[in-house]
């Protein structure tokens, strides 16, 4: 019985996450935040040293300016990063390849306005990359 309650809690948690991302009935990329969908043309360039095209860099610049909260959610969502086969260090190193400044993830906030807690060792790794 306890395992059923745990399973139900996990399901409700996943359902609430899915609902909070604003997925509409016609979406095919269930659970993928809108800012990530716009950046899908960049995926092929994350693992290479090839210069990303404007089809990637323009939406990236727009997302960095207008959708930083969405990008913060991506940055700290290990499950989503793993499903996209990308790492935090790849994300941090990518904007400069488009001539853009990397976001300051230390200022990422939850919807409540609280600063997102980032372990010091993770910050040091990010700053070194």
Automatic annotation (TrEMBL):
<feature type="domain" description="Bifunctional inhibitor/plant lipid transfer protein/seed storage helical">
    <location>
        <begin position="35"/>
        <end position="108"/>
    </location>
</feature>
<keyword id="KW-0325">Glycoprotein</keyword>
<dbReference type="InterPro" id="IPR016140">
    <property type="entry name" value="Bifunc_inhib/LTP/seed_store"/>
</dbReference>
<keyword id="KW-1015">Disulfide bond</keyword>
<protein>
    <recommendedName>
        <fullName>Bifunctional inhibitor/plant lipid transfer protein/seed storage helical domain-containing protein</fullName>
    </recommendedName>
</protein>
<dbReference type="InterPro" id="IPR036312">
    <property type="entry name" value="Bifun_inhib/LTP/seed_sf"/>
</dbReference>
<keyword id="KW-0732">Signal</keyword>
<dbReference type="Pfam" id="PF14368">
    <property type="entry name" value="LTP_2"/>
</dbReference>
<dbReference type="InterPro" id="IPR043325">
    <property type="entry name" value="LTSS"/>
</dbReference>
<feature type="signal peptide">
    <location>
        <begin position="1"/>
        <end position="22"/>
    </location>
</feature>
<comment type="similarity">
    <text>Belongs to the plant LTP family.</text>
</comment>
